């Protein structure tokens, strides 16, 4: 089981700029809505993209997807840990919880890696 992070702690980390947030839903969902500063990393791309996207294997990383029923965030976190990333947590409540709490959401196209 992946370590989890609560909304309040994640919001503080985003505000402080101390975490890399990964949207695991994919580009289509990302364009419509994503957490502030999030980058896209889907499960099928972890092995090929993680090294470029996340060069510091000890940096704080949080994965998220839509809600607790979605397993993408968990799956990406597990793969990142298998690649040697040491500080990966999942925001299991996901963007649904974030937006229902009235926290800011961004829109737009993901940067290419």
From TrEMBL:
<keyword id="KW-0808">Transferase</keyword>
<dbReference type="InterPro" id="IPR001763">
    <property type="entry name" value="Rhodanese-like_dom"/>
</dbReference>
<protein>
    <submittedName>
        <fullName>Rhodanese-related sulfurtransferase</fullName>
    </submittedName>
</protein>
<dbReference type="InterPro" id="IPR001307">
    <property type="entry name" value="Thiosulphate_STrfase_CS"/>
</dbReference>
<dbReference type="Pfam" id="PF00581">
    <property type="entry name" value="Rhodanese"/>
</dbReference>
<dbReference type="GO" id="GO:0004792">
    <property type="term" value="F:thiosulfate-cyanide sulfurtransferase activity"/>
</dbReference>
<feature type="domain" description="Rhodanese">
    <location>
        <begin position="15"/>
        <end position="107"/>
    </location>
</feature>
<dbReference type="InterPro" id="IPR036873">
    <property type="entry name" value="Rhodanese-like_dom_sf"/>
</dbReference>
